[in-house]
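Renewal narrative, Specific Aim 1. Our central claim is that a sequence can be written position by position from structural information alone. The example that follows is taken directly from our test logs and has not been curated for this report. It begins with the structure tokens describing the chain, in the order in which they were read.
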């Protein structure tokens, strides 16, 4: 399977999950989606990550993002583990977790990286837009839990980019100033950004976040 690159179509699949069998594209519809992998059930870092994402579900919902996890163990295993996730984090699993014992989805999305492990997935994150295009891909090692506030931050940036043709600078946070895209002329910018902008360089025009 060739590596997935930004802008590629996110491949479709059918899989068993903790919420029944689903077709990925059907389930996703025209929402945004985050697909993220877990090396193995009943492992400590994964347990904390799944609980954290369950706690952040209202934040994903607010942004129109559906979340789906995957681990290469069976549905039975996932169901037992879900109770542990709730016990440890206080958050009930509130999104589907794919069972992928044959590694079909893991292979499709290149989540098994044999020089890291040939049985467990790496920690992948894919952010997929309403048109099913891949917009973000992250790969973390098994021993490092991901920062899901960062995933939300990138989604905010992508959604601003789609709506207003702005980019976001280093360490940007929601509410900070943004950068007017290079393809936007000063004439167009006058209409699109009525709060005005500061040109730090001719190619670096900064404006208040337009939806605030
Ligand atoms: C964990 O989730 O803690 C983990 C899983 C696989 C390898 C190392 C850590």
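The sequence written for that structure reads:
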């Amino acid at each position: 399977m060739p590596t997935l690159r930004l802008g590629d179509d996110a491949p479709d699949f059918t899989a068993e999950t903790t919420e029944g069998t689903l077709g990925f594209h059907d389930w996703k519809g025209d929402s945004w989606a985050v697909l993220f992998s877990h090396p193995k059930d009943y492992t400590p870092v994964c347990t904390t990550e799944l609980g954290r994402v369950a706690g952040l579900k209202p934040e994903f919902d607010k942004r129109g993002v559906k979340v789906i996890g995957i681990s290469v163990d069976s549905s039975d295993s996932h169901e037992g583990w879900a109770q542990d996730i709730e016990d440890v984090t206080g958050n009930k699993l509130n999104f589907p977790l794919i069972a992928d014992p044959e590694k079909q989805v893991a292979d499709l999305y290149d989540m098994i990286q044999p020089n890291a492990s040939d049985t467990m997935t790496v920690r992948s994150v894919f952010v997929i837009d309403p048109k099913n295009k891949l917009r973000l891909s992250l790969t973390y090692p098994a021993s490092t839990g991901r920062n899901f506030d960062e995933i939300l931050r990138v989604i905010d940036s992508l959604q601003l980019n789609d709506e207003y043709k702005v980019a976001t600078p280093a360490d940007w946070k929601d509410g900070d100033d943004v950068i007017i895209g290079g393809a936007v002329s000063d004439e167009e910018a006058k209409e699109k950004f009525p709060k005005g902008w500061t040109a730090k360089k001719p190619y670096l025009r900064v404006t208040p976040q337009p939806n605030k």
